[in-house]
């Protein structure tokens, strides 16, 4: 039986999913023994959350709902941790984000 998990999370940081958040997201995704995918719409297209090129190409602005799904041994933990990272504004403070 394959473990699967999915959720949605709203991007609330001012600059959206730019370079630094994309790097943080993919680095975290790579720590899990799961295939992790992201989409900007519920019906896709889905792309590999462990690919920095694909994450940066998404260019998701503030207010975008990210759809996350994972399959594998740590699917639930991966989805929960990635959603939490987005909810924490990718651990960026607003003053630093405005100067980026």
What labels describe this entry?
4 helices, alpha+beta, 4-stranded antiparallel β-sheet, PTS_HPr_His_P_site, Histidine-containing Protein, Chain: A, HPr-like_sf, 100 residues, Phosphocarrier protein HPr
**Mean pLDDT score, rounded?**
92
* CATH-defined topology: Histidine-containing Protein, Chain: A
Indicate the radius of gyration in whole angstroms.
Answer: 13 Å
Strand content: 15-25%
CATH superfamily: HPr-like
* Main sheet makeup: 4 strands, antiparallel
Describe this structure in words.
With 100 residues, the protein is α+β, with helices and mostly antiparallel strands. Helix 1 packs antiparallel against helix 3. The N and C termini lie far apart (44 Å). Strand 2 and strand 3 form a beta hairpin. The mean pLDDT is 92. The protein has a single domain, classed as 2-Layer Sandwich (Histidine-containing Protein, Chain: A). The chain is built from 4 helices and 4 strands. The chain has a 4-stranded antiparallel sheet with strand order 1-4-2-3, with helices on one face. The protein is globular and about 35 Å long. This is Phosphocarrier protein HPr. Keywords: Sugar transport, Transport. InterPro entries: HPr, HPr-like, HPr-like_sf, PTS_HPr_His_P_site.
């Amino acid at each position: 039986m394959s473990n699967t998990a999915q959720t949605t999370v709203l991007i609330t940081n001012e600059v959206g999913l730019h370079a630094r958040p994309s790097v943080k997201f993919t680095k975290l995704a790579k720590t899990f023994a799961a295939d992790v995918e992201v989409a900007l719409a519920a019906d896709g297209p889905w792309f590999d959350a462990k690919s920095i090129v694909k994450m940066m190409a998404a260019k998701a602005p503030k207010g975008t709902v990210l759809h996350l799904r994972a399959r594998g041994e740590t699917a639930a933990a991966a989805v929960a941790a990635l959603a939490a990272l987005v909810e924490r504004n990718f651990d960026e403070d607003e003053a630093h984000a405005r100067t980026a």
